[in-house]
Amino acid sequence: MYIRYEVADRIATITLDRPEVANAQNGELLDELDAAWTRAAEDAEVAVIVLRAEGKHFSSGHDLKAGKGWTDKITLEQIYASEAQRYLGYSLRWRNVPKPSIAAVQGRCIAGGLLLCWPCDLIVAAEDALFSDPVVMMGIGGVEYHGHTWELGARKAKEILFTGRPVTAEEARQTGMVNTVVPRDELDSHTRQLAAHIATMPAFGLRQAKRAVNQTLDVQGFYAAIQSVFDSHQTGHGNALSVNGFPVLVHLDDMKAKMQ
């Protein structure tokens, strides 16, 4: 089990619990996480969902080591189908759960880690939080749920993609990607207090408010953009397959060194 789930005081807390690998996402973790989101969405006793992570880091992204040995066994069609379900489909589903959600982020949140926190309605970040998407080093234009422009603005999005450098918690707050920055030792308590306050609001009103904001973004093109960029994302995999083998193996050591 890679996910812990608990409900108290109308708040469902979902915890990523794979700290020994910085909560890297293998298929099992993502499937368990989706099941936890579904459980919280369907529970009438749950008013607010909190997503948090055990350990020093929120998430180091996709488990790159899980791709070792796949070079001669996987096709682009198989990659597309798997990512459409786990990386794009799950994130869109979590975004549209009709209950408020809050992500509490500490330490590193790398590439695939963004697919976990960006679908949440609010993000509380510890002062040590660093957000990055360095997958351009792998010949790919960004992670599968391409919310960069919406979360950071066009120029900042290009900057972090072109350079691979992390965005600090305070930078993220200034762009509007993060709601609040707090000391690391206050992350859980602050997030809990925020969730508890939101849980006192009428459930139908919260649902309508969330729907209104999400629909406004969709009318502006969010949903269509996410879908179209996902398709272009797959050309990066195709290029890596044709030149270097399965893309998670490309420049792996170089990427790990630059993430330190």
Automatic annotation (TrEMBL):
Pfam families reported for this sequence: ECH_1
Annotated Gene3D superfamilies: 2-enoyl-CoA Hydratase, Chain A, domain 1
InterPro entries reported in the protein's UniProt record: ClpP/crotonase-like_dom_sf (IPR029045), Enoyl-CoA_hydra/iso (IPR001753)
Highest taxon of the lineage: Bacteria
CDD domains: crotonase-like (cd06558)
Family, per entry: Belongs to the enoyl-CoA hydratase/isomerase family.
Protein name: Enoyl-CoA hydratase
Organism: Nocardia jiangsuensis
